[in-house]
Amino acid sequence: MKRIPLAYWFLLPAAVSIILFYVLPVILTFVFSFTSMASDTGIYGNHYVYSKNAIRALEKSTLNRDIFKKIIERKYVFDSESLKIISQSKIEKKTQTEIEETLPGTVYSTEKALFEALDKLKNKPRSFRDKKIISRATIRSLNGEEFIEISEMRVAFEKLQIEVGEEDFDLITEVTNTSWHWTTKNYREVFSNPDSWRIFKNTGLYVTLTLGLFNVGCALIIALLTFYMSLGQSKFFRSLWLIPRISPSVLYVLLWRDLMDHSGFISYVMGYFGVAPTNWMGEFPWVTIIVINGFVGASMGMIIFSSAMQAIPKSLLYAASVDGAYMWQQIRRIILPQIRWPILFIASYQTLSLLTSFEYIQLSTDGGPARDTEVWALHAFHTALSNYWGNLRYGFGATLSVVLVVIGIIASITYLKLFKFQVLLQEPPIEN
Amino acid sequence: MKVKYFLSFFPIIIYSITFAYARDVEIGFWTKNDPIDYRNGSIKMAVMILNEELKIEGADVQVVAKIRSWDGGKAWSNLKQAYSLAMEAGTGPTIILSGHEDIAVWGNSGLIQPIDELLDLDTWPMSNIVESLWGPMSWNGKIWAVPQDAEARLLFFWNKHLAKIGYSESDLEALPDKIASGSYTLYDVLKDAQKMQDQGVVQKGFGFYPRPKKGGDYWQFYRAFDGDMQDSATGKLVLDKQALLAYYQFFHDAVYKYEVTSKNHIGTSWSNWHAAVTSGKAGIWHGGTWQRAEWVDMIGFHSFNENVGFGLMPAGKSGFKPTTLTHPLAYMISRNNDELSQLAARIIAIATEPRINSLHAIKSSHLGITKVQDAQEFYKNNQWPSDTSSLLENAFSLPNNTSFGQYDIAVWNGLTAVWSGRLTPQESVDYITKELNATMGGKVIIK
Amino acid sequence: MEKHNSNRISTIILFVLSLPLFILYFFFFLDVFTVPSTDSIWPESFTLVHWRFLTETLSGKPSIWITTLNTLIFSGCVVAIVLVLSSTAGYALSRLKMPYRSQLLGTLLLLHSFPSVSLLIAIFIILQMIGLYDSLVGVIIIKASLELPFGIWIMKGFYDTVPWEIEMSGVQDGASRFTVWYKLILPQIYPGLAALSIFSFISSWGEYVLPFVLAPSAEQQTLSVYLAGLLSETTAVDYGLLKAVGLFYMLPVMIFYIFTHEKLMNIYGGGGGSKG
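Above: the input entities. Below: the structure tokens describing the complete assembly.
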């Protein structure tokens, strides 16, 4: 028997969890993007409802007119069939007997009329539940009814003596089923909604500005400045810039909110310049989301750049320090070229992180006003998981994610080309 | 003697044996957490009474309530999302207390069951519930829930500030009636707010101080211009372009013409908003009856009655009617096995008992839901506002429709686009029309 | 002389750049211990009332200590899983011959472009099928899996920097490849393990969306969910309390950071090395 190479054993545990809990959800999300799945359709199972909408759709359909009439007709009948069901129920015997004696042959057009008739009995049904049993036994209509199982619906058809062909039955189940169905409408909606383009532009602007100004720009400045400081000072500033990352997002955004509120520090300071206090976050929503994200995002680049700079051989730096224009020359000629790779790494990795991040925006502007600061990932979250009125559109949310992923893949491939990816993959010199 | 003594204990022994063998049935109850309401308390009480009833009936069952309250900055969204997923996974609660608009969504997906299958609504206390509240409980020809509370949303104003711009004592007294008759309109609100700012009574941007976040309240401004939300024949959602334009124009005028509301008002934190309206920093604002309880009990604004006047939400312009939105919460029963459903229905019926309901209504400044509460000493003496009948007469509620959430977001985004000055009212209406056509197709009738 | 001057300038620049952070956290620490004033940004008096959550259970909330324990278990497990699985998989991808190696690495990087939040519905369905919805175990597995691609890349970078000679000599001495990895290579990448553990600890300690959506029961609550629950939809919020809980929440990470931050600066041993 051939031995399984060690590499696979090393890879197996990670591979299983990634495939099961990362790749499989990705595939499922792709599948969902072609469905109408939402909180009003449910995720599992079918649910057949003869609602007003369904009946209107049936009316317009090719369904046999006689069958349609029988479906919408509504009456409560005491025939041998219904009496049999009542006699098998838990309803008290004396009530049953009285029904069998007095009611056969009667027909009622509403449940209310039926209940009134039942209440007139000497041995009237003891509970509401009993009345409901009788109602269910005598009803001869599908109008307004609902079924969880298709077999229940077949029984109901038999009870009503409606003869339907398989074709008609399929049509009826399709129309009445409130469960999700396959569709490409989601993709059409993404492209026909005028807001999609705005949100797309917002996303581009947000990623570019945050990345350029903070995640790379600010990170690089801090790394360079602290590089030239004494150990104590550099430790202090680096730790300071890490605090936002370890602050819980809810708290961190709240601190910014306090700072920018009517009664906050900015309004307080601006008061000395005669500016009336205002809600600065609402005044400058774009500055808000970029700064809030940026102060968190800069720390990652800062760490990577700083440690990369420390890895630069000291001899290179000393050689340059002989030069007159000390610091700036050193940075331009030696440090920046040496940390080219980390910069590219951070730029690419953070592009993807920013594309998919939304938490701080959600907590600060929540995409407002009027979707001015809504980015794609937040839009997907709002659509699929957070609606004030509880309408969660899982399928459409999945479509939005798929679009985002396509953008992400294009960005990654571009970056991987820049990275000269293959360089990172020297072949191992030892065989297994 | 001794035997007799022993025998007298016999029923108790039998009783405790049955009790010892009683099964515990867990009934989950979820709602939004609120520090000053009585929603959880009502259910606890109802379960206590039900358990006594069950003991007396000799049933072998006792109910244990498992109550979970949802909180956070988006408590309602959180509750609804968690319920939708938990029900799919089969771990959801038996009873959910949420906004009535969820009936359509959850009824359609089969998460909840029609309550008229489980409860005889012609029996006490359901038979005593105010008729108009059953409308929001219905969907698709069935009744799906029992209302838990009702409220009205009102226009509030600082009496002192109005006095400073020339309102006499009697003018102030007559104002609520003027609003109710439709002669004091939304534009009069803007004019008065502007006067307050011009005379330095309030700062700029504080004359008219609307709700700072999204919410059903804003539909009142659409209704104030006679906008329809639902087509009664087909049950489809309706968007009346003319009313929508007037609604957007009103806020555009408030911000840019009269300058009584600030451009970046939306997004003001609730804490700041509550502080502004309770301190007199804001002149005129709108809110819900229940907010009075928050102002008095939580913020300590005890001089509310002397300082603040209120009325219905005024008509948009003369010729239209004043409005107010009522958004009753609704007890719904999850689709479940028969035993749980029956017990849940009994709990809901007991919790609807006027005496229990009054505790919630009074504590949180909501309106009672039954007619008999008006005759109840505790309710009558403590009720606020004291005259509620005129409020509910003018009340409308949001449509129960599975697509309401989507429709609401579009209209809200249109408003905030006008508010922030990015679009003119007309542009915004055109934009929304285009968006709704693209995304909701035939589900909305645009007229 | 020149060096001195530029040093001072850089300190000033950095100070100005960091000014918002100073202000943010200055007021944060102030608010946690004081009674706020209604009309001034300066507080009224000192108080410890915001810390009452430590001794009493807030209404409608689980105990803070159980929640903290949950969070510790959650983060600890995630870190452990991520460390073990990334160090084995990273080794395989860095050192062992296998087909499609570059494709695998590329795929791992691409996975990062999937917004984890949009996978939630799919993840929910999978967890529900294996019976782990609404349990901390389920969230741990998911969080760890989502962290793995990053972890594997970092570890691969660290393995790349270990000289091949170490491995060669081990193999020549007759040790198995596994023993070589365990006894010789692993000790070489301790800094990498430390850095990765810090990253995954910080990331899981702060994780909010996953536990919130996938384990909604109160008994499973983590600190992030507890904290977010202190906000309110419409009523006024007790900000002093919220900030105190926030500080309490940050303390473990701060302590963790103080002990390990030297290691964090070494992270660039990985991630591609100083090649290029």
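Note for the figure: Confidence is low (pLDDT under 50) at residues 269-276 of chain C.
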